[in-house]
Amino acid sequence: MMIGRPGLAGRAIARGVAVLFCAAALAACENTPDEPTEPPTLIERGRQIFFTETFDGNGRTCGTCHRAEDNFGLSPNFIATLPLEDPLFVAETVDALKNGFEAPVQMRAHGLIRENLDGFEDLETIFTLRGVPHTLALRTSIASPLGPRTGWSGDGAPGDGSLRAFSVGAVIQHFPKSTNRVAGVDFRLPTEEELDALEAFMLSIGRQEEIALPIQFRDPLVMRGQAIFMDNAAGRCNVCHFNAGANGDPRVLGPNPGNLNFNTGVEDLPDLPSHVTGQPVPPRDDGFGIPGDGTFNTPPLVEAADTGPFFHNNAVATIEEAVGFYNSAAFNNSPAGQLIRQATGSGIALEATQVQAIASFLRAINALENIREATARLQESLVAREARAAEALLQTRAEIDDAIEVLSGASLSGDAVLHLREARRLSAAPRRYDDAWRTQVNDAVAALERARTRILAPAD
Q1: Above 60 in pLDDT, residue 194?
Q2: Which end of the chain is less packed: N or C, by CB atoms within 10 Å?
């Protein structure tokens, strides 16, 4: 079950977070009278580069597409909040980028970005349109026996496929002043120091370790969904998404299977979002390699419920639709579907209630991750400089908003939602970063813990 993509959180504070990310990154390097000057850590330096460095290009930064306030991804709903002058829209405002650089209609309607993974020789006919993959939990999701897997097809980086190459490829693809893409003219390439820092920052985002299933939940529907998810004769999800991560189950696929690629037939679905009425139909996305072999890599599912739309082409909007895809003829007739049929004697055929149960389980683990991340950001705010503390509080509220939306979207854990709302209120930006505020932050942490315990079953 490969359903990832990234984008749904914190819409109401979107622009505020973006501004604060830039301000905080700059403030970390400024010499202020009341704060000692300290050199930034490698991660802090990477954060600064990620959100503020344009590499002498068209005005975009890494954070232009991987929005911190949208789960380090980019969803159509978030795009709709942006002003025309946002650098995301350079193809609409810069003459040298109006042809062959982006597909503005598909971008605005469905969050699809133009990619030239098979080269820049023919911009008009050789390209793909893909959603923006989130950069959460990369430390747990890019290792593969065949080399690092980055981007939707696992080949989102030129050269060795590493995160460093991913950064270089992003600058060449998305940052140039013209489609000539001449280094030193249309952009500058990142330095080795910048690549070190970017890699360190990207590896620091989100989870640093896998969760361990099974988890004991209060809600019987969530428990049922987890059981189907882990049942290799029913949902079979856990084979490719072991412990709801991005790596295969070593008990089935052998030791250290890592992150794998599959052809799941998503490109065979009818009425894809990229097929916008009145617009040319884009070429079929051929997946991994040059030319591609039709496969795409396996994203983590812990973060899935709040990072829709789903799949590499943003094919469906909800987590329930994404789970339901595995009932489709497109999947069951695909090479991946045929592998399952050969191994088990049948394809996947989930009942509607089973689809709902699996989706509810994915929503529950996503909310737990939101709570973990919100708690970490609150604790960070207590020890950070004021600029970074303000940023951490905004991140906290975005994570709490995600948890509320993820749970409320399926009417799950209503009592947990009440505690989440209280935690959000207590996470408001203070007038002063004083002892009263610290007490309030600790109260917010306690409210988050109460929310977590309302999702999980009581310990024996």
Answers
A1: yes
A2: C
